[in-house]
């Protein structure tokens, strides 16, 4: 493990100190405490997961059509929802909020695996790994616009701009890879809502903890390729001269930042080699591409899942995939079927693949959107849809210390409010950090006079879900 | 035995008197509440025993002397004057019984022996509370006397050297002139010194050559651009609305107002009043209205949003947060939902401040979601408009009452022509975002738990009790509030302002937490210097340039930034200023420098923002409302980075990678990081590569031999000449690429220029 990316060289001034610090080996995450004056986290207890893959369904997948079957919706299809359930409830788009009508799911639900975990027939492949999933049916929040809701799920605060989960994880645990960023974001899908840079922001944490989005066109990392006309050998010679000059400067000024800069130039050079290797899937057998359902050279959610596996193999700490196109205000039946088709096989493949490589135990996989969708209908006719719904929705987690084959919590009969064993976003965060071996109350950063946490002042670890 | 004393090892913690810190005369050193005690209490106790009733445990408050001495329901008393052994506070922090021990384990570690010792002595000495230093009036301190006054060139040095002397540490030798020249140039102009500027400085033998240089650069129009860069971070200036829509809007008139005000050295009190309440000044000018764009920089959601009121409220919250941090160094927004846990600011007081900002017309039919706007002609067109108006007015005067004027027809024609031309100009009108005030103020209520839909008590405009009040009898509104901020009795504004400026030049404020002068902020490293600067600043009539001049002409500023390992070990953060800081430059300076040394930098000041080159696809997932980034052709590619179109949700990548903020919220201090992505920008960004090509062309144009070329290259990029070893290294590389690889001179010098532009030295203020 390398601490080079995380060095706070101000803490160690002489070259000898610096070299000693950078030579510190594996398992030295707690060293962060020595190097980073703000850092009060180390590994607080044995980590179950070393890494996270977070599959973010941007736009909000409908819980009542995927993981939360509601027979009552079929029974009362087309009838008004009981007024007591919608008292003081705002909708994002449904104009007449006084008398919304219930809408049955057009999809059939069935039990899967030994656990009998339920999901709709939109997920035929995922059913095959049902025993690996811990399904939460009782997620809830109050935030029903996209960007504040994504912010809440990512950063624990609906106000855009706080540090996100991946930033907290790489701040707390440092980086295990020398050649790649610790926090990588991959994107796919049908554009409907914008994806904002703030979704992977470092917030007030130092910017080295920012997520790096792999681009869909051109270099995966911005400015990765040499400019036209500069070949690798010339680049190597340039870097040697830069290094020599920087070493001279260090001899004069004795500033450890200069040594850190020398290291960063070397890391950058290694990234230039390792990122294209990573992106080049030619070493994956056809059977693997088939398992995920991806085609060579075509970026898709499936290809991103395979890439995510390659990233965690290379010890990247936090990989977040955004799949766009889940915001089915209309044409719900058609669009949700399309979305689920495009993620079902790949999600299942990812879990299987991680498992057969022995990586699932140490990789926490998370699936979910920024909210669910209303059990009441938006619009009508064939093009009916569902509106944003934060009051009760579903997510699932797998691997990385989670118990498989369980369903946690429940919404009411109509899938409107989370009612049993409710899980707040802070609880979800506390649990994910726990899997990484971090006590969420102790992962703090002092900013403008206050200690901030991912979980703000709340959050309980969901012990029931832990293996 | 008292249950509290169970397991308490009295003898162990009651230190014999000889163990205590002794004063110079051998007496027990007296404990200073602000310096010694308050940090312990606020860090470890106030969260549960502070001002916020919601979180208070055991009904105990330790932040107020009378409450701390009150007997609790349990019969215990936290503080008994002079007697630690009867004070529950001291017993509970020292008890061996871990269940009883404060602070509770899950809240944090036990206090250290030193902290216990301080609290013990404080109670023994009568447990005096003092007001937090930052809320005390600013009092002019006397100048310290130092051993060798010749080492000081102005009072700043007296304060700094006094502290260093007391530690027995020496300050650094003066900087080498090349380094100093470069430092000053980047600090005052944000640009490198040109080789000819360097030469004339080196040739200037006057003893006050440096002062002349400072004055010349303070008068340069580049000064305003450079200083605006910091202020625009604080003002969260951006060219888009933020949030998902992130729509473009015209804010640059405000940005140009800031540059102009700084260049003209507008007094800081006026600078404050015009930005916060320029629209409310009697007979407000167009310029004063544009200044109020400061508070229209808040993010704004677009009109189709169903929660318009929520976003209006968010706008006010942002204005308070910004005003609090920028002028008062207070984290007022902590009190939005609950009484501030650490600072004396109740939720009620927060909403009194809120009431002051609650009267901007907004969301009404006339304003839609945008709020008030002002029609403005760009300056050059305004001049044309004024000329036409002069013609119209003159003709009107001549014609007045004389229909039989011999030239009546001609004059009438002139008027009509001018009016037509004015009509044509109207097409170019820009809508500036400005503040305005409702004639009848909105009613303001406390928002319970910060939720605007849950209204509590009605409140009226007012300021926190801990700060001086408004002059009696005055209407309290935005204008009186702005004047109150710069009232000389206000203990915070001048301190916060000089501190922020200090941070610009010395890398870190005297108060390290620039945006937090509250109880949890860091205490000043040099309290007397801070107050001396604050008083001097106010007494100079809030003269900004004079303050800058004061700082950059001190010996403290002019000393070398070379780290001395022994001192660096003792003072790793350089809080004592035993050397100048050595810091990576801001994003804007790094790019502007590359453009300048390549001879590409465009000169124009102000105007609409520019779209320099960025790779395709950077903003590919933005909303349709956000518009496309179409890279500028010509001048727009090479304008100063200050003018780069600031897209909050997809900021210009090479600037964010070098830590430029998104400006979603106010930012009074940028982080400085050191990452591999920064190396990739400087090595590979086509825009940077283009500057290396331009520099190579410049070098080849001016010099025909390697000897002149390498000298020129070093002079342009590093403001110095190459040393012999450097010479040899570059010569060897040049020869190899030219002779072995067969590269053209332009190719060779492009490669070498890239090397120079990537050096730690190049991107560091040394």
Would you give an account of this structure?
The complex is a heterodimer of chains A (467) and B (766). Chain A is α/β, with parallel strands linked by helices. Chain A has twelve helices and 17 strands. Helix content of chain A is 31%, strand content 17%. The N terminus of chain A is likely disordered. Helices cover 44% and strands 3% of the residues of chain B. The longest helix of chain B is centred in the middle third of the chain and has 21 residues. Chain B starts with 9 loop residues before the first helix and ends with a strand. Chains A and B meet through helix 7 and helix 8 of A and helix 24, helix 26, helix 27, helix 30 and helix 31 of B.
The main β sheet of chain A shows up as:
9 strands, mixed
Average of pLDDT of chain A: 87
Low-confidence stretches of chain A: 1-42
Beta-strand residue percentage of chain B: under 5%
Oligomer: heterodimer
User: What is the count of β-strands of chain A?
Assistant: 17
Low-confidence stretches of chain B: 1-27
Q: Using only CA atoms, what is the Rg of chain A?
A: 23 Å
Question: What share of the residues of chain A lie within helices?
Answer: 25-40%
Helix content range of the residues of chain B, please? 40-55%
Distance between the termini of chain A: 27 Å
Strand portion of chain A? 15-25%
Q: How can the largest sheet of chain B be summarized?
A: 2 strands, antiparallel
Count of folded domains of chain A: 1
Per CATH, the class of chain A reads: Alpha Beta
Question: What is the second-level CATH architecture of chain A?
Answer: 3-Layer(aba) Sandwich
Mean pLDDT of chain B: 89
**Gyration radius from CA atoms of chain B, angstroms:** 31 Å
Structural class of chain B: mainly alpha
The number of distinct helices of chain A, counting runs of at least 4 residues, comes to: 12
What structural category arises from helix and sheet content of chain A? alpha/beta
